[in-house]
Amino acid sequence: MPRSNRPRRQAAGGRSAARGKRAASGADDAGSGLERARFGIDELQEAPDGAWHVRRISPTNAAKTYTCPGCRHQIAPGVEHVVAWRADAWFGEDRAAAERRHWHAHCWRTRSHRYL
């Protein structure tokens, strides 16, 4: 069946139906972009045990259970934490990223700086 050239019907409040769906889902929310920028960027940290890439994981993006290497306790889904991997790995960036570990934020900040 051919597409209609008629304009779409306006939703309540003067917005188009497609715009209303996007706004209802929160896609246009300014906070979602801010949260993505705040949590999705790697930070390079220098420490006595080398250079590390560190990325914060927001509670909404924490979907699995992980074991923190600092305290050996579980990081439950929905808990904010950090992911860390070596920036100065001998075997390349790909291998370092494959060996990344999920840490509680407190455990990462207070870790002893010896190679784990």
> Order of SSEs, N→C?
HHEEEEEHEH
Helix proportion of residues, in percent? 25-40%
Mean pLDDT over the residues: 75
Number of helices: 4
SSE-based structural type: alpha+beta
Question: Strand percentage, roughly?
Answer: 15-25%
Element layout with pairings:
Blueprint: H1 17-25, H2 30-39, E1 43-47, E2 50-57, E3 66-67, E4 74-75, E5 81-86, H3 93-98, E6 101-103, H4 105-109
List keywords for this structure.
2 domains; alpha+beta; 4-stranded antiparallel β-sheet; 6 strands; 4 helices; 116 residues
Overall description:
By secondary structure, this protein is α+β, with helices and mostly antiparallel strands. It has two domains: 12-41, no CATH class; 42-116, no CATH class. The chain is 26% helix and 22% strand. It contains four helices and six strands. It has helices spanning 17-25, 30-39, 93-98, 105-109, and strands at residues 43-47, 50-57, 66-67, 74-75, 81-86, 101-103. The strands form two sheets. A four-stranded antiparallel sheet has the order 1-2-5-6. A two-stranded antiparallel sheet has the order 3-4. Strand 1 (43-47) and strand 2 form a beta hairpin. The longest helix is centred in the first third of the chain and has 10 residues, at 30-39. It is elongated and about 65 Å long. Residues 10-33 have a biased composition (Low complexity). Residues 1-34 are annotated as: Disordered.
